[in-house]
Amino acid sequence: MSTTMIPHPLDNLSADEIRRATAIIRKERSQDDSFIFNSMVLKEPSKDLMMSFLGWDTSSPKPTTIEREAFVVLQDRPSGLVHEIVVSLTQNKITTWIKKQGVQPTLHTGEMLEAEEILIKDERVIAECRKLGITDMSQVFVDPWGVGYHESIKGKRLMQALVYMRTSPDDNQYAHPLDFNPLYDVNEKKVVDIIVAKRRHSKFERPTIPLENHHFLPEHLGEENLRQDLKPLQIIQPEGVSFTIRGQQLDWQKWNMHLSFNYREGLVINNVNYRDMDNTLRPMFYRVSLAEMVVPYANPYKPYNHKMAFDVGEYGLGNLTNSLELGCDCVGSIYYMDAILSDMKGEPWIIPKAICIHEEDTGLLFKHTDYRTGKAHSARSRRLVISHIVTAANYDYGLYYYFYQDGTFQYEVKATGELNTSVLAVDEDAAPYGTMVAPQVDAQHHQHLFSMRIDPMVDGRHNSVAETDVLPSPHPVGHPDNMIGNAFSPHSKIFNTTEEAQTNASLENHRTWKIINENKIHPYAKQPVGFKLHTPNTPPLLAKPGSIAYERARFASKTLWVTPYHPDQLFPGGFYCYQSEPSDNLGLPQWTKQVKNVRNTDIVLWLTFGITHIPRVEDFPIMPVEMCGWSAKAANFFIGNPGIDLPAGDKKSSKSAYAPADAKSCCGKTNL
Which residue in 208, 241, 435, 638 is a FRET match for 131, CA 20 to 30 A apart? Predict the structure, then answer.
C-alpha cells in the first residue's frame, strides 16, 4: 500500500519495516536457522491512545508520536515450538519474547505449497495412485487442508490432503476426485497416515476415477460455443472518481475511514465516521473486520468428517488474497492498493492490486411523484466499494465493504469458485449427505458461517445493544386497543450482561438489533441515537452440541454475542484455533464464562451470518455467486434523510442512451 513518510499509527507494516523486524530477530537467533516466520503484523496501538490521536477523546492532549511495533510468530522446525515476539520498530529492539508450548498457529501459504510438492513424491501416495490406475504423478494434485481435530495423534502439526487428478495442466481437477486422504506432518515434512474412504452400499472396494471432463475455461469450451449476442456495456467516469486517498486514509462524499490489511483478517476498516449536514463529524465504528469463518461439512464418515475449515484462523484471508484484474474483478475507474505480508523467511511478500476501490450506481436512493401535479423528484444512489477476493483451495470469496450516501454501511460475501468434491463408486448415491453433480462426483452438503467483529463508537465510545422483536398485539380482536385486529408494535430490550447478549435470529419475530448510545437522545424520536443491524442470512450451526465441529466453532452457535472491549480479543474461535481441542472453549465461550457488563460501556459485537449450501448440479463445474451479508442502517441517528442534499438524477451525466443533448434533471412532469 502507499504510505506517507510518517505512517499513520494504524498503517500496516511496510516492506522496509518487515525487513527491519526480520533482521532484528535473526540477529538474536544468528546461531540457529531451524525456524520459519509464520506471520508478521502491526501490533496496533492501544485504543485509548488512538482515541486521543484521532480526536475523539479530547480529555488528554493528542500524542505527537506513537510507537511502531511488529508482532511476529515464529515456528521452530521440527519441534513445533512457537515464539511470540514483539519488535519495537521505533527503538529497533525486541521488547517481548514468549515461548508457547502445545499451540498451532495459522498455516502459512508457503507451508501448503511445500506440502503439495512433498506429498506427490511420497511413496505411499504414489502406491495408492497406482491402485487407482494412475502412473503419471504429474496428473496428481493435492489441496492441503487443516486437519481440524485429530482424536489420537497429538502434539504434531498435521495437515490432511485432498487428492485429485487432472487430464491436462489446467483441467478442472474437482471433476476427478480420488478416494484417499494422506495425513501429513508439516514440521517433519512427511506422511504419517493414509485414510482410504470406505465404500458404503457398494459392491466395490475402491471406486474407479471419473474421467469425464467438466470444463469451464473458455479455451476448453471453445470460442464458437460462447455467447455471441453480448453488446459492450461500459462504465465511465469522465471527470474521475469522487473519493480521495491519503496514504491509507480514504474520504468519499461525507464518509471518512482508514484502511489496513493483515495476513489473517485481510482488509480491516478503522475509524469510520460521517460528516452530518451541520458539518459535525460523527463517529460510527472504531474497527470492523471479518474475524473468523467456519465451513463444516455434513458427511459423518472418515475422512470427510474432518472437513471443518476455519478459513480465517487456519489459513488467513490476507494470505489467500488474489491480485485483481481490471475489467474482470472490478470495473470502472479503479484505485488499487497492494498488500504487503511476510513470507516464511521474513521477507516482504507483495500482493499487487490486492484491494479494489471504486464507485457503483445502485439505482434509486429515493423518489416521489405528486399524483396531483404529476411532478416527480428522484435521486440516484451510488456506493463506495472496497473489496478483496480470496481463494481458499476450491472456493473463492469476494469480500465487499459498501458505503452508501444515506449513511448506510453494508458488508457482503460473494461465494463462488468450485465445489469441493469426493468420488463415488458407479453404484453409489450421494444422498443423504451430498448431491451427485456429475457421474460419480459427490458434492457434500456444508455450511459457510462467517463471524464479523464490529467494534462500534456510535457518537462516542460507550454504546449498548438493544434487541427488538415486532409482535402482534396481545389483545384479541374486538378489544378496545385492537378493535379490528390490526395492531402490532416493536418490543425492545437492552442487553445488560454478556449472558443476556448471546442471542439468535428470529424470522418469525422480525428480530433486529440496534447499536445505541444511551447518552445521546434524538431530539425528535426521544430515543437513543443508533444504527440498526439488518441480518437476512442467519442459518443456525447444524452440527450438534457436543460434536467436534460445534465445540470448536461455538462462536457460530449464536447469531449475536456482545462482549466488553478487550484489546486481545480479536478472534472468536481463539488466536490459536488450528487443531484446537473441542474442550478448549477458545474465544467467545472462554471470554463469556464470567458475566460482565455490556451496557453503556466500550463493547464489541460478534455477528454470525452465512449460507447453508445444499449443492445443485448448476453449481458445477463452477459455482454462480451466492451472496450473504449484513448492513448497519442509521436508526434515529440523523435529523432526517442524510441523502436529501443529493442533486436530482441527471439523464446526461448518467449517459443514458436516449438522453437529448440538453437533458438536465429527472425532476419534472410525469404521466400517471
Answer: 435
